[in-house]
Each structure stands twice: as C-alpha cells, then as structure tokens.
Amino acid sequence: MSSLLRVRPTKIELIRLRKRLALAKKVHRILRERLTILVNEFLLKVREAFTLRRKISTNIISVYNKAFLLYSAYGENIVNYYSVNTKKKLKAIVGLENIMGVKTVTVRLEEPEYIETTVIKDLDIFRKECVDIIKDIIELGKAEKAIDALGREILKTKRKVNALEYTLIPQIWNTIRYLRMKFEEREREEKARLKRVKALLERRRGE
Amino acid sequence: MIENYIERALKEELKIINKHLPYKRTTLKELMKMDIPYIVLRDGTTHLIEKRELELLYRYTGDELASKLKIPIIIEVNPSFGEGAAIIRDQIAAKVLSLILNKEYKEGPLIIYMPHLSELRRILRTTTTVIFIPS
Q1: Domain of B85?
Q2: Which of A156, A187, B48, B49 has the least C-beta neighbours within 10 A?
C-alpha cells in the first residue's frame, strides 16, 4: 500500500487531512481503551471458567460416587420417588448479556422446590449437590460462551487499532508532510520567480 | 472517494462505540421488584441483570438510597484522564462503589483505575457499564 494518499495539492485538502488526522487519532485512542477493557474482561472470564472447570471436575466425581452408592443401597424406585417429589422442575431463563457491546448468552436458573424428607438424608444431600453441579455447569457454559464472543471482538478491535496505528494515521501524516513540503517548494519557487522578475525589470529600467 | 468512506467509517465507529448503553436507566428498587430484572439497551436488545448483584447493592444502599440509585451504574472512560483511569460521576453510585471497593470517598466524582475497574466488573458484571467519551 502506498504511504501517501492520492489528493490534490491544495490548501483546502490540507485542512481536510488535518481534520481527518484528528478524527483518526480520537478513534484510535478510544478503540485502544476499549481493547484494554475488553482484554481485562476476557482475562476475568478465563479465570472464572478455569476455576469453575476445576470445581466441576472435583465435584462430579463425588456426585457420581454418591449416585452409585445410593442406587446400590436403596434401588431405583426410591430415587424415582425423589425425582417425583420435586414440585417445580429445574427451569432456565435464557437471555442476552451485553459486555461492552459484546452480546453473549446468559442463563438464569430457577431453583426447584423440594419437599424435604428426613427419611433418607443422603438422598436430600445428593439432590442438593446435583443442583449445585448443574448450576456450576451452566455458569461454566456462560463463561465459555462469553470468552468466545469476547475473543472474536478483541480480534476485530485489535485489527481496527492496528489498521489505524500502522496504516491510516501514518498515511495521513505522510500526506500532510508531503503537502507541506509541496507548498514550501511552491513558495520558494514563487520567491525565486519574483526575484527574477525584479532583476529583469531593473535591467530594463537601466537600459 | 475512498477517503470519504474512511472518514465515514471513523465517524460511525464513534457512534456505535456506546451502543451498549441503556435506553433508560431504572432504579435499584424498581429492578428488585421485577421477576426477571432487565433493561433495554440503545441497540434495542435486552440486558438481563443478575439478582445476586442487585441484592448485594441493596445491602450497601439500604431502602432509601435504593430508590435513588440508577442501574446500570455508568463508569466513564475518557482518554483525556490518562490511560486506565475511569470516573463515576453519580454520587450515590460513587458512594456505594467506594464501599464495595473499600476505597476512601468524600464527595464528588469517584476516580478509579484499571485494577479497581477489573474488580468492580468481576463483582458487578451486569449492573455496571462502561461509557467511552471521545476527547
């Protein structure tokens, strides 16, 4: 890409270019700030996803073990009876969350209502742990979805910032410099021409 | 010709940078009453708000200030303040956020820096929003 813009060497064009340079710098500054904040959000989400994944990995083993033990101790019927006891099923509300212009999916979990029974306390604990793990899995899904969306937005913003920083602003700046040099040259030419005309007139007057 | 497009694109970029701002801000108390708290943004989308965050804010504000605190709390980022600095102009919000951040606050706008901003966004992700002011 040429380092100069194709413009007519006129004063009005120089003024226009100066305005464009100011605008480009303003956009560049804002986009850079946005990029910093987006990267921060991205890192927060990565940390959150990492913690959640680790938590789920440790909890899921204990939940599986408990499920196996309960099944073997009480059989299938009692577990089915407990699932029937859940008054309201686990309900998820899916909506949008906007993180600095980046839209991500968010899910809100509605807690089911349980009938607490003291007959088999282990099953109550197991059920609570299951709900907790589902909540964590949903949170992890949200975080990973946000990471994906934020990552894409960061790439886009970074490309814009780089285009401004390394292409557009230097191009405008070089063109302004070129135009200034051109005008100075014109001025010098004009001075030299005037001197010549003056010398010519003086010579004629002398004759 | 192409220069005009570039200029237009730059101007457009400044226009869309704050499209994630709310169309209308709602008070904390009103949001607490909602079954599914949400706000409508300038781009027409709805933004769901976490109830957990609202409850946290309510704990800090109390009943009286809850009817005055507007949600989402706007954090202003202006490159002229210097890189990484942000400002909260709303006095009630500034008071509440200073309590959450454990930061000293007397009067006027609250100035925070990048680590504070990260912490704030971690705690109050859906109830705060960042506005970019071109300078």
Answers
A1: 19-132
A2: A187
Residue A96: list chain B partners with CB under 8 A. Answer: 45-48
Q: B17 touching A, CB under 8 A? A: yes
C-alpha neighbours within 13 Å on the C-beta side of residue B9: 12
What was the ipTM of the complex prediction?
0.87
A121 CA to chain B: closest CA distance, Å?
Answer: 29
Please indicate whether, in this complex, the C-beta atoms of B77 and A37 are within 8 angstroms of each other.
Answer: yes
The answer regarding whether domain A11-206 maps to CATH 1.10.287.3240 reads yes
- pTM, two decimals, is 0.85
Q: Are B36 and A93 in contact (CB under 8 A)?
A: yes
Contact at CB, A27 and B14, closer than 8 angstroms:
yes
pLDDT confidence of residue A146: 92
d(CA B132, CA A170): 24
C-alpha triplet A81, A84, A85: angle, nearest 5°: 90
The model's pLDDT over A3-24, given as tens digits with 9 standing for 90+, comes to 777 788 889 989 999 999 999 9
Residue B69 located in a structural domain: yes
Flag whether residue A37 sits within 8 Å of chain B, measured between CB atoms. yes
Q: What angle do CA A30, A36, A40 make, to 5 degrees?
A: 145
Contacts made by residues B88-91, CB under 8 angstroms, sequence distance 24+: B88/B112
Q: Which of residues 101-130 of B touch A (CB under 8 A)?
A: 114, 117-118, 121-122, 125-126, 129-130
List b or e across B25-53, with b for residues whose CB sees 16 or more CB atoms inside 10 angstroms: ebebbebbeeeebbbebeeebebbbbbeb
CB A95 within 8 A of CB A106: yes
What average pLDDT score do residues B80-105 get?
Answer: 87
* Facing residue for B41 by CB, picked from A29, A40, A98: A98
Chain A residue with minimal CA distance to B51?
Answer: A108
Which residues lie below 8 Å from residue A43, measured CB to CB, with a gap of 6+?
B118
Instruction: Answer whether B45 sits within 8 Å of A41, measured CB to CB.
Output: no
